[in-house]
């Protein structure tokens, strides 16, 4: 128990320091030495608790998803069925990810040299309060770090509602993931002159079109999703 308390305390010191540097200098300027100096420890001490700088940055980046997690239930409540709720959850995700592209790229695109699910489980073992108040279904989506699995995990309920066939779940999850990654890469690398609002709207449009192709013809009239915008 004492070791767990000590570990949680040290994590907070380093993650607080990392989050402050991200806010002040940007995520591209973060180093293990800067983090350790600000936390009041040496770099070697930091490595006793984090195997790699990318892991520490990953955990620090999680701090910046709080607003997304808090807003997600309200977005999903706007839907009247699983497909609509799934689309509104995508809108919430896109809104926040394009507002903070560097943060979300680290969490969902970068090579961490480790299994993201394990890192996320470690994070919430320390910051379990971040999940208090979330419905169990949303907790399971948050804890499933693999993006396409997160998507499939929720929309599979649409099979029972007879909106889609089970064999389409993986297609929907994979295609929409590629849509978001493609737009995020385009947006971050300035390959198109998109504002964040345009990037969100275009991504949602492509996600919507992708899922509608799989909706059973007699069920399409029951999808009344309306893009809310920012």
Q: Radius of gyration, Cα only, in angstroms? A: 19 Å
Query: Which geometry do the CA atoms define?
Result: globular
What is the succession of H and E elements? Answer: HHHHHHHHHHHHH
User: Between the first and last Cα atoms, what is the distance in angstroms?
Assistant: 45 Å
Number of discrete domains:
2
Q: What structural class is derived from the secondary structure elements? A: mainly alpha
Mean pLDDT rating: 87
Tally the helices. Answer: 13
For the sheet with most strands, the description reads: none
The counted number of beta strands is: 0
Unreliably modeled segments: none
Q: Proportion of β residues?
A: under 5%
Which range best describes the helical content: under 10%, 10-25%, 25-40%, 40-55%, 55-70% or over 70%?
55-70%
What does this entry show, briefly?
By secondary structure, the protein is mostly helical. It has two domains: 49 residues, Homeodomain-like (Arc Repressor Mutant, subunit A, Orthogonal Bundle), CATH 1.10.10.60; 159 residues. It is built from 13 helices and no strands.
